[in-house]
């Protein structure tokens, strides 16, 4: 048996978890989509704060240590909410992959050109 597509499997697992929690992201009204995008955005903001707290950011405090294990857990927590957000928007793992590839190409083109000016039209095709 071959390995499953890892991104598809992550999306499947997140959908299963969301349904267990009581959220069917594929059956949300427009109003509920907005609410859940905001909920997931707020949750991600908190997870980012927890990620920051994993690093010794207080330059005046000598007692702090980098907690790499906790930082790794916080990154995974961010994935949970980010995937849920993509699912709220109706995106599949294939959609995310295709959009990532396109945006990655745009980012390389920006670097090739020195990224001296913002061009908001360069990402509209994504």
Question: Overview of this structure, please?
Answer:
There is one protein chain. The protein is mainly alpha-helical and 126 residues long. The protein folds into two domains: 1-89, Type II deoxyuridine triphosphatase (all-alpha NTP pyrophosphatase fold), CATH 1.10.4010; 92-115 and 122-126, no CATH class. The protein is 63% helix and 0% strand. It has four helices and no strands. It has helices at 6-21, 30-52, 68-88, 93-112. The longest helix is centred in the N-terminal third of the chain and has 23 residues, at 30-52. The mean pLDDT is 94.
Total helices: the number is 4
Number of DSSP-assigned strands = 0
CATH topology of the largest domain: all-alpha NTP pyrophosphatase fold
Task: Give the SSE string.
Answer: HHHH
| Major sheet attributes | none
Portion in helices: 55-70%
In the CATH hierarchy, the architecture of the largest domain is: Orthogonal Bundle
**Low-confidence parts:** none
Mean pLDDT, nearest integer? 94
Q: Give the domain tally.
A: 2
Strand content: under 5%
Oligomeric state of the chains present here = single chain
